[in-house]
Design a protein that fits this description.
45% of the residues lie in helices and 0% in strands. The protein contains seven helices and no strands. InterPro entries: VWA_domain-containing.
Length: 166
């Protein structure tokens, strides 16, 4: 059995600060593509980044599948958390915590300390765009409900409505 056969597929790198970056490792561990993480984010900067950018040539450095990875080894680079904007660290941490609660409840003892550190980090952050911590956590929890129905051809707009537009 090779080394890759023994790799833990549920590994998400936790930064020393306690944050989980919104990166390829988070997508891999949660099995949620970056596009869906950004589309369901409560932060407009994530949704706006999904708009087509015609002036940008395609290259591996612009490929969202390669963001945050070392192109030589394919490993995730978590040594420079300053490259990530606050919205990405906050959303990545909220998603990681929701994923742990939804997918790994039976292994609570294994991830309890990491989740406590991440939760503490999250509670100390100033949430951008006038959001509050509870709405970000609720959006992360709703992400997993939305994902269950994503491929059932339901209108995502019906699931993710803005109260002021109703």
């Amino acid at each position: 059995m090779g080394e890759s056969d023994n790799e833990n597929k549920d590994y998400i790198p936790l930064l020393a600060s306690g944050a989980f970056p919104l990166d390829a490792a988070l997508c891999f561990a949660t099995s949620v593509p970056m596009e869906k993480l950004k589309w369901t984010s409560p932060f407009s900067s994530h949704r706006n980044s999904l708009a087509p950018q015609r002036d940008q040539e395609f290259s591996p450095s612009h490929d969202p599948r390669h963001q945050g990875t070392d192109s030589v080894r394919g490993s995730v680079d978590t040594s420079s958390p300053r490259r990530l904007d606050p919205e990405s660290l906050i959303w990545g941490t909220a998603v990681a915590l929701a994923w742990l609660e939804h997918s790994s409840a039976s292994h609570f003892i294994d991830w309890e300390l990491a989740a406590a550190k991440a939760s503490t980090w999250l509670s100390l952050q100033e949430i951008p765009e006038g959001r509050d911590l509870e709405s970000v956590k609720a959006a992360a929890n709703q992400l997993f409900i939305i994902l269950r129905h994503w491929d059932e051809n339901l209108q995502l707009n019906m699931l993710c409505y803005h109260p002021s537009s109703v």
